[in-house]
Amino acid sequence: MDAKILEYRRGRHTEHTDQFIVSIVGVSSRDEAKKLVGRKITWETPGKHIIIGKITHAHGGSGTVIARFERGLPGQALGTNATLE
User: Fold this and answer.
1) In this structure, what are the phi and psi dihedrals at residue 66, rounded to the nearest 5 degrees?
2) Contact yes or no for 66/21 (Cβ under 8 A)
3) In degrees, to the nearest 5, what angle opens at C-alpha 15 toward C-alphas 12 and 19?
4) Strand partners, 52
5) pLDDT single digits (tens) 8-65
6) How far is residue 26's CA from residue 4's CA, in Å, rounded to a whole number?
């Protein structure tokens, strides 16, 4: 499945650079998003390295999820595609 990295998980005063809000193609409700918790997600850098993350929980009511990566992704990852395994 394909996914799109939307934004860092952030608040008014904080920014969690290892956690991202991710939109999954074909998932449009919170219930569908909850079923994906625990699955792995990968992002490939322009230098062909792979960074692995894990979906931790649903975010909002429109099917987006929070994914936590083993190390933070660079800012250039925002708006790019990732792969759900």
Assistant:
1) -100, 130
2) yes
3) 130
4) 42
5) 999 999 988 889 999 999 999 999 999 999 999 999 999 999 999 999 999 999 999 9
6) 11
**Tokens of residue 47, six digits:** 């230098």
Confidence of residue 76 (pLDDT cuts 50, 70, 90): very high
Residue 37: both structure tokens together: 């918790």
We report the CATH number of the domain holding residue 24 as 2.40.10.190
Length of the chain: 85
Place of tokens 């994906």: 36
Number of domains observed in the structure of the chain? 1
Torsion sign over Cα 10, 64, 37, 54:
negative
83 touches 67 (CB < 8 A): no
Domain of 21 in residue numbering reads as: 2-84
